[in-house]
Amino acid sequence: MNKDSDALVGQIADVVMQVMAERGLLGGGDAPAASATVGTGTACSLPHGMAAQGPPPKHDLVQAGAERIGHTGEQPPSGEACMRLSNYIDHTLLKATATEDEIRRLCEDARKHQFASVCVNSAYVPLCKEMLEGSGVSVCTVVGFPLGSMSSEAKAFETADAVTKGADEVDMVINVGKLQSGDFKYVCDDIRAVVSAARGRTTKVIIETSYLNNDEIVHACVLSKAAGADFVKTSTGFAGAGAKAEHVALMRKTVGKEMGVKASGGIRDCDAARQMIDAGANRLGVSASVAIVQGKKSDSSY
Q1: 93: helix, coil or strand?
Q2: Residues 207-252: tens digit of each pLDDT
Q3: In b/e form, how buried is each residue of 120-147, taking b as 16+ CB within 10 angstroms?
Q4: Would you give the DSSP letter of residue 201?
Q5: Residue positions annotated with a catalytic role
Q6: How many Å apart are CA 62 and CA 18, to the nearest integer?
Q7: C-alpha–C-alpha distance, residues 151 and 48, integer Å
Q8: With a threshold of 0.85, does the pTM exceed it?
C-alpha cells in the first residue's frame, strides 16, 4: 500500500465517522445490555466488542474501526512448504448439491490435514461436530447465505440455532444493498445482531467485495469492526469474482491488527493462497484445500 492508498483509507474512514456521528451512532451514554441487537438505536454507538464482551475498551470508534496499520506479519516463514498452510484454511463445501457422503469426506480431509475448520451449511453442523470431536478442527457455518438481504432477526435466529447445534464459527453475509444505500446504522445493527447471537463464537462478516468499490469496502470493514465482529471476509464465492489481493490488502489496512481478514473465492493453488496471505489474510476459505497443501492446482469452481 502506498502513500496515496494510505490517504484514501484515511479520507474514507473520516467520512464514515462523520456520517455515523451525524446519525447519532457515536453517542455516549450507558451501555445497553449484552442482549442488545436490532433496532435499539444504540447497539452500534458502542465501541468494538462492547455488547458481546462487557465494558467498553479504552479506545474510541476510530481506533476500533479504522486503524491505518500495515500487515500483521502472520504469513508463514519464507520457503515453508505448501502443506504448512493448512492452519490457515477453512475447508469449505457450501454448494446446494452437497451430499452427506461429501460432507463426511470433507471432515475426514480436515482431520487428516488439520485444517482450521470445515465450513458448511447449517444443516450439516451436527454431523461435522460429531465427526470432528477431539480433532482440534472447528466447525464453521454460514448465516444469511449467500445474499445477505434477509432480516436481521432471521440472521440472529439462524446464528443462535447453529451455535446451539455445535457451530464454533459463523460467517455472515452483509446486507450489500443497505450498505450501498448509505444506511450504516442498519448494517452495523445487522452485524451486531449476529455477533450477539453467536455468544462469543468467532464471527466473520462477508462483505462481497466483487460488488463494492474501494470506498464501500472500507465502509463495510469499519462497520464490521464497530459491530464487534472478529473477521472481515471477501466473498461468498457465489457472486462472480472471488478474492483479490488488492482488496485483501485494503481490508487489512482498514481493520488493523486486531481483526482477522479472510480471503475466499477462486483460491485454487498454493501460489494463490500465499498471495492472499502476503496481502494480509490470516484465514482462507477454499474448497481446493487438499490440492493447495499438496502443491497442486484444483479446477474447483469455488
Answers
A1: strand
A2: 999 999 999 999 999 999 999 999 999 999 999 888 999 999 999 9
A3: bbbebbebbbebbeeeebbbbbbbbbee
A4: S
A5: 171, 233, 262
A6: 11
A7: 22
A8: no
